[in-house]
Amino acid sequence: MKRLSIVAANWKMNGSLALVNSMVSELNNVTLNENVEVVVCPSSPYLAAFNAASASTNLSAAFSLGAQNFSEHNSGAFTGEVSASMLQEVGVSYIIVGHSERRSIYNESSALVAKKVKAALASGLKPILCIGESEEERAAEKTEVVLAEQLQPVIDEVGIENFKNVVIAYEPVWAIGTGKTASPEMAQETHQFIREFIAKFDENVADKLPLLYGGSVNAKNCEELFAQADIDGGLIGGASLKAEEFKIICSAAKGK
Ligand code: 13P
Fold first, then answer.
1. Would you say residue 16 has pLDDT above 80?
2. Which ranges of 164-253 would DSSP assign to H, the alpha helix?
3. Mutation to probe ligand 1, out of 68, 102, 170, 217 (largest number of atoms < 8 A from CB)
């Protein structure tokens, strides 16, 4: 097996301490295939609580903690911001960067996303770099151009060799929270484009890069999506808040 599969839970601004505790105990008895890692990304106030709850269980080494947002700066007068090094200190290993909600609601540009990826890597965190096209962009057959425009600034900022510590999540904006999933064939075609795009810079890095699909993944569609040659797991929103459903999704992932 050459590639890790990852199932990452993006709780967004949802959840509670009660969900942290119940999710940790539910995940404690999930069965995972070989070469699969599960990452849970709760809101920042719950990160330490998640770590504390998992320390008192047998949650295996296959589980990691992730964060949803952070500053591109390492410290200083940035009221309200949190740095990658602070997150690393409280046990975070992965960090979501460039989610379409941050790009559209908080106007995060691809240049800022690139700086954040650099800051994450400098603190030893693995960025889950989100890219994806809007419905209009897909209809105008601009998907590949949009994805290339989102990837190139990051490659320029950190260098392709550092992508060995990056995870890419392809999340078509029109599939997020809408119940409209990309068909497995459409998702595969786009994942293949992304892997080939990276391979133009470094084939070895592309070969090992975990490429996740996100957008209305659920217990019913996960198996078929994860079976595609270039889909190495998923970034899960709504379905990651329901322990039973999330466990089914985790168990469906297989290392490739
Ligand atoms: P949903 O799974 O709710 O569509 O959300 C996907 C997502 O945005 C994960 O980051």
1. yes
2. 184-199, 203-208, 222-226, 243-252
3. 217
Residue-wise pLDDT for 189-216, tens only, equals: 999 999 999 999 999 999 999 999 999 9
- Domain containing residue 12: CATH number: 3.20.20.70
What are φ and ψ of residue 29, in 5° steps? -115, 25
The residues carrying an active-site annotation are: 99, 171
Q: What are phi and psi of 184, to 5 degrees?
A: -55, -35
With b for 16 or more beta-carbon neighbours within 10 A and e for fewer, the 35-45 pattern comes to: bbbbbbbbbbe
Per-residue pLDDT at 77? 98
What is the chain's mean pLDDT, rounded?
96
Distance (Å) from CA 256 to ligand 1 centroid:
23
Please state the pTM of the whole predicted model.
0.97
Residues with CB under 6 Å of ligand 1 are: 10, 99, 171, 176-177, 214-217, 235-239
Atom of ligand 1 nearest to the CA of 99: 10
Q: How many domains does the chain have?
A: 1
Q: Which pLDDT tens digit goes with each residue over 53-76? A: 988 887 778 899 999 999 999 999
The parent domain of residue 94 ranges over 5-252
To test the ligand 1 pocket, which listed residue (11, 12, 69) has its Cβ within 8 A of the most ligand atoms? 12
